[in-house]
Design goal:
The complex is a heterodimer of chains A (about 300) and B (about 270). With about 300 residues, chain A is an all-alpha fold. Chain A has a domain of about 200 residues: MetI-like fold (Orthogonal Bundle), CATH 1.10.3720.10. The chains are: A mainly alpha (about 300), B alpha/beta (about 270).
Chain lengths: ~300, ~270
Amino acid sequence: MLESQDLQAIRALIAKAKRWDAFFGVLGILSLMVGVLTFSALFVDMAIQGIPRLDGNFFINFPSRRAENAGILSAWVGTVLVMFVTALAAVPLGVAAGVYLEEYAPKNWMTDIIEINITNLAGVPSIVYGLLALGLFVYQFGFGQSILSAGLTLALLILPVVIVATRESIRAIPQMIREGSYACGATNWQTVRDHILPYSSAGILTGIIIGMARAIGETAPIITIGALTFIAFLPNAPFAGDPPAGLFDWLFSPFTVMPIQMFNWTSRPEAAFQVNAAAAGFVLVLMTLLMNGAAIWLRYHLRKNIKW
Amino acid sequence: MSNATTINMDADPKLAIKAECRNFNFHYGDFQALKGINMPVYDKKITSLIGPSGCGKSTLLRSFNRMHDLYPGNRYGGEIVMHPDNTNLLAKEVDPIEVRMRISMVFQKPNPFPKSVFENVAYSLRVRGINNKSELEDRVQHSLKGAALWDEVKNRLNDLGANLSGGQQQRLCIARALASDPEIILFDEPTSALDPIATASIEELVVELCEKVTILIVTHNMQQAARISDFTAYMYLGELIEYGVTDQVFIKPKNKQTEDYITGRFG
């Protein structure tokens, strides 16, 4: 039985421990707020500055020397096309590499070295990818300062993200599902095609979109390979141009992208261009948020039918 | 202990051997999990494997369909011979996929694929290249009837397998194992995740199935082995201690160790 004095001591002890409890709670909220409030402030400031500028013409005008006439047509078209190339290159390569590492690769030192390298690749500064791409795609392969070069560069940049996301969602599939498939007499490939890929597609798609959301804002490697900062024409539509040519001419067209257009405008002295930069930034953040939103929505809907 | 593995049974002309372990050894890396197993598996009979945890009974079961090939560092020694074609299932030149097409398996925990009831059963057929809709429908229905599940799921063939109850899920897995007309079905403690009512229905089903297919079942539940199996093998520490007709093993075990385990004094 407890003496009343012991009880007092226990209560004091609990009260003291709980003060630390409360202290950490407050510290945690403050830490969270630093991030959230800073981002919100930036975003709201940008929105207040930029939204009045967002009329229809802003989206269908080329950049101009006069701030009030300037628009982001070449930038958003460039961004969309570059992202398209990036996805086309990064998704099959990344998913195939991830599936290979999880379902095919023998567990030996070679595989370990490859795994470590992939993890490290994710941490390589993006400008380094830009330098590599300048030498390899622009000069060696002769793709020039084109949408193709930019798309492939960003694809390299997000490849580790796609591989890691693929592997993680494949690992989440219980081993008993694999064994069930093999026990039916399925081959490695049949198991991958009929089970592994369908059941991990939600996670893989999420990873792809998060990678793309990173790529969409990348500036350094794109500048390195020579994106233009002022461009007043669009890449040729398929079978158009002068002389009329093939389906994929646009791949070799010069281009600019949203972050470079922003960078160009912020470096101008006139205040009106700063407003343009804010408006373009608002559009870029919105594009990113939309992509992340799509990732959440896809994950929710694809996982509805996956129960172990 | 060498005499424990010799088989002494009254000759029964109706008994045919479907498969046979001959001096079978198994290693997980450096650890020898099974030592010199000699055991017949009789055609269209139920053989149960019993023994305390870690005795190697699941390891033995999973050798029959080469599940160990999925993981690195596993080694087989000796032979598991399948009759009447006399194929050594463990031979290097025998593809494990061929083995799994002849010998199907039902696992400890029901593991339906996150697909519809229909597709779960159809999968065994699809890997065999059967994609004809009416043939699939016929054979899926036939398998679901064989697994005593048809009446419960005939109106929900497009439901997810995971939405069935635990016992129904296990019968779905049995239907999946049946669909391909296997020669042997392996059951790895198929009722250990189920309640007594679902367990009873699975046991009843297993007994019915043995009219058409050879069954090898691992069980922790000795009453279950006694109730359903024709032959029983008692294993301990990777060795086959006693093998015989179930009644003999349970009523008059030849080996003291078997008797201790069966009567609950050990294990």
